[in-house]
């Protein structure tokens, strides 16, 4: 199956787990104040990272298909969790920092908008519980902002 995924996790003490995905191995742990040893990122930190990298891969791929001279694409994320259980993200705030000499604001906005309305599966899952707000910067200048919305048809320009 093309969309099939598997993961195996093994408890390694306190709140630590060793995860195995295909041939990759990595640790996941809790913060010391929660009883972990702080050996690795927490599950929610990994989820936040997954949003950034899934969408970042979309944006890079789209800009490369436009044959643009992309020099860098950084995606930064911030969130706070709710105070009550289950503690979920209140709102995810993303910043896309795209750098390239020939990248126009509308091209960067289109790439991010496509990711945040059509392609980013991680964001599409998270946004059902937590809003995702994003800002787009091209060569250090803010060029736009919006909210992820997977319930609409993507705007094409």
The major β-sheet equals:
4 strands, mixed
Strand order of the largest sheet: 4-5-6-7
Helix tally? 3
Helix content: 25-40%
Morphology call: globular
The ordered H/E elements are EEEHEEHHEE
Protein architecture, described:
It is built from three helices and seven strands; from the N terminus they run E-E-E-H-E-E-H-H-E-E. It starts with 7 loop residues before the first strand and ends in a 10-residue tail after the last strand. With about 160 residues, the chain is of the alpha+beta class. The model has no long low-confidence stretch (mean pLDDT about 95). The strands form two sheets. The protein has a four-stranded mixed β-sheet with strand order 4-5-6-7, covered by helices on one side. A three-stranded antiparallel β-sheet has the order 1-2-3, with no helix packed on it. The longest helix has 23 residues, at about 45-65. The chain has helices spanning about 45-65, 105-120, 120-125, and strands at about 10-15, 15-20, 25-30, 70-80, 90-100, 130-140, 140-145.
Descriptive keywords:
4-stranded mixed β-sheet; 157 residues; 3 helices; alpha+beta; 3-stranded antiparallel β-sheet
Summarize the structure.
With 157 residues, this protein is of the alpha+beta class. It is 28% helix and 29% strand. The protein has helices at 43-65, 105-119, 121-126; strands at residues 8-13, 16-21, 24-28, 72-78, 92-99, 132-138, 141-147.
